[in-house]
Design goal:
Elements (H helix, E strand, L loop, with lengths): L3 E7 L4 E3 L12 H11 L4 E5 H8 L5 H6 L1 H9 L2 E4 L11 E4 L3 H10 L5 E4 L2 H9 L5 E6 L8 E2 L10 E8 L5 E7 L1
Parallel strand pairs: 1-6, 1-7, 3-4, 3-6, 4-5
Antiparallel strand pairs: 2-8, 7-10, 9-10
Helix pairs in contact: 1-4
Length: about 180
């Protein structure tokens, strides 16, 4: 059975994006870049919602991404990608397919089939829906030492209590902390 991991950047006060979708507050230095390269090397399937997909496809397959973060760009471009969207009709990024059915049902089906583990990147509303459905096996949050006056909370609209246990931590020299949680 496949595992589903969530990976997200968060502010100290729990926002995964600032006003207008801004994520420029995230401190992504050399050490965080190395971590991202190592994570991409594990070869899992990347999951996105439409908004996160559009953000990712606007950067990772570009020459700028290959220049700024070549190993991560190679991994992102080579990885199998699934976009959950009811409105997106085509996906031009290599190795990408669109699923427009019932989110929880489709992810449950994917988890029950043999294959690579899956990682949901960003995708706030999908994170909340999958958390409510009890389909997430691990939550990885990179907490930046910054607080914003407003933004979008990571679990906006969560309907059920989510009890987690901390399984590991990692501190980066930038002050960013990676927290790994699993559901109780």
């Amino acid at each position: 059975m496949r595992k589903l991991v969530v990976f997200n950047f968060l502010t100290l006060n729990g926002y995964f994006e600032g006003p207008g979708g801004d994520t420029s507050w995230h401190r992504h230095g050399e050490e965080e870049g190395k971590f991202a390269s190592e994570s991409m090397g594990q070869g899992g399937i990347l999951l996105f919602g439409r908004t996160t997909y559009e953000l990712m496809v606007s950067y990772w397959p570009t020459p700028m991404a290959m220049q700024q973060a070549p190993e991560v760009a190679k991994g992102m471009n080579k990885a199998e990608k699934i976009v959950f969207s009811r409105t997106l009709k085509t996906a031009d990024w290599e190795n990408t397919r669109i699923i427009n059915g019932d989110l929880a049902k489709e992810v449950r089906r994917l988890k029950e089939t043999p294959g690579k583990d899956m990682c949901l990147l960003g995708s706030g509303s999908i994170l909340t829906q999958l958390a409510d459905a009890g389909l997430i096996d691990e939550y990885q949050f990179m907490i930046d030492p910054v607080a914003l006056g407003s933004g979008t909370p990571a679990f906006k609209g969560l309907k059920k209590k989510l009890d987690l246990r901390l399984v590991s931590t990692r501190k980066f020299s930038s002050g960013v902390v990676l927290l790994n949680y699993q559901p109780l």
